[in-house]
C-alpha cells in the first residue's frame, strides 16, 4: 500500500499461475482485464494530457507492471504457440487482443518498453504473423508501427514468414493500414533533410555503403510480391463510393482509432459530428495516437464527409509507398507497372471529386520526404499526390501519360508548325494508357496552381511537379504547350506582383521559369511583354539577387539561351537578354556564385551554384574569353583587398567537382541534358582550369600570386 502498487504484483503472480500449459485461460483473461483497467486509465491520461507534461508525469501502475515482469510474461504468452505444441486450449482472439492492448499501453507510458520489444527480432517477426487474423489485425498493426518507429536496425521484410501469402490475405482496407508499416521499412532513414546534408558527408557515406541498403532490399522484396503494385494502384484510384464496409459506424469505430493520427483529424470529425443531427447517440472514441479523447455524438451511419476523410487517409499511405518505390533503384520496373495499371488516368478521374474537391489553405512549412507531417489529412493527401506526380514525370518518357489524347495531338501540331521532329517519347506513348476526360492531369494542375494564394506551400509542390514535366532534354513543344496556357505570366505575376515572401515557393518558381524559357525565343518575347516597365524589371532583378542559391538555375538558363540565340536583333526583343549580354553583369553573377559556397558547405541544394559558375566559364572558353574572366576574378580580389580568396576557393570547389561527378553517371547526364553541353566539355574545362602550369592563361593557379597560394592542397584527400 505504501508503495501504491495497487495489488499489481499479486495480480501478475495470479496471471502467471493461471496461464499454465493445461489452462483454459478463463481465469487468465479475467485477471488480465483487471490489470488492463488499471493501466488503461494511465494510457488515457497520457494521450489526453499535453505531451510535455505527460513526459514529466509518472505512470506508477505501468511502471510496476513492467518492473514485476508483466511485459515479458505477455510476450511469452503470445509467443507460446510458436515454442510448444503442448498447449491444449488455444488462446482466444479476445485474449490475444487484450494482451496486445496492454503491451501497447505499456509502450506509450513507460520509457524503454518499446525499445526492449524492438530489440527482440523474434517477437517483431511473430507480430507480423498475427496480422493474418482479421480480429487482431488492428491491435497488431498499431503495436508493430510503434515498435518499428524506435527500432535501431531496420527490419528485413524477407524475414517475415510467408510475407507474400500474408499480403495476399489482406483485404484492401488492411492493405492500406499495412502501407503505414511498410513506409518505415522502405524509406532511407533521415532522408528528410537530404538537401541539408553536405555532399562531403554523403560521399563519405557512399564509400562506406557499397551494397544496397536494407530499405532498397525491402523495396525489391515488395515488388516481387505478386499483384502488390496492382492492388496499390486500385486502392489509390478507387472512388469513395466503391469503398466497402463503411456502413455501420460502430463497427468502424474500432478501425478508426488506429487512424486518428492527430488532433486535426479529430477536429474534422468533431466538425462533421456537429453538422450532423445533434440528438444522435453519443459514442466515445478512444483515440490511440493523438492528443485528445473525444466524445462524438454521431448517427449510426457514417456521413459521406467522414467516408471521404477515411478514404483520403488510406490514399495518403498508399501514395507515399508508391512514391518511395518510384524514386528507388527499381524505378523503371515500377514505372512500367504504374502505367500498365493506369494509375495516372485513375488519379485524373478523382481529381475534382476527391483530390482537389475543395480549397484547403495551407500555411504549413514545406516538409522533406520523411519528416513527420502534422498536417490535416487533406493537406497531406494533396502534397503526397503532387510529390507522386513529380517523381513520376521527372526525367522519364512516361510523363506524357499526364496528358489526354487531344493534348498529345496538340503537342504534335506544335512540332509540325515549328517544323521540328516530334520527341521520340511522345511518338512512343501508348495512347490506351493516357488520361481520358476533357483535361489531362497536367492541365488540371495548371488550373489549380493559378488559384493558389501567394504564400501557400502547395505552390512549391505544384511548381515542382510541373517543372519535372519539363526537365530532361529541352522540348520546344512541351514549353509551348504550357506557354499557351498562360504559365509564364502566372509565374511572373507570382515573382513580381504577388508579394510572395516564401523562399521555397520563389525557388521553385525560378526553377520552373528557367525550364520554361530555356532556348525558347517565344518565351523571352512573352517575358518582355509582361515585364514592360523599368520598375517591374528592377523588382524582378531584386528577387533574383536576393538569393542566388534559389535563382541560379534561372541565371544559368538565361546565359545558355543567350549563347544559343547569338543574334543581335534578339537582344532588342528582351530586356532580360540584353541585361545578361553585358559582360559586367555576367561577371557580377560569377563573383557572387563563387563566393557563396565552399567545399565544406556544399549540399544537394547549393551545388547548382558551382555548376552555374562553370557554365558561364565554359561558354567563355568556347569563345576564347576564359583568361579575361579569370583575370576579372583576380582583379575583384585585389579590389576587395583579399587576394587569393575567390580563386583558391574556386580551385578547391573544382577539385571537389571532379571527385564528385567523375564517380557517378546519373548526375553527369543531368548536367548534359539541362545545358546541352556534352559532359566531355565539362570535364575538359575543369581539367584546364585546374592545370598545374602557372604559365597557362587558362589555369586558375596562374592568377594566384605565390604568397597567397593556399597550403592545404590535401584538404579533399583528408
Helix vs. strand class: mainly alpha
Counting copies of identical and different chains, the oligomeric state is: single chain
Radius of gyration (Å)? 30 Å
Strand percentage lies at under 5%
Q: How many β-strands, per DSSP?
A: 2
Measure the end-to-end span: 64 Å
For the sheet with most strands, the description reads: 2 strands, antiparallel
Mean pLDDT score: 83
Number of helical runs? Answer: 38
Low-confidence stretches: 50-56, 245-268, 273-302, 367-373
Shape assignment:
elongated
Major sheet strand order? 1-2
Summarize the amount of helix as a percent range: 55-70%
Pfam family, one: DUF3689
GO molecular function, one term: phosphatase binding
Protein name: Transient receptor potential cation channel, subfamily C, member 4 associated protein a
InterPro entries: TRPC4AP
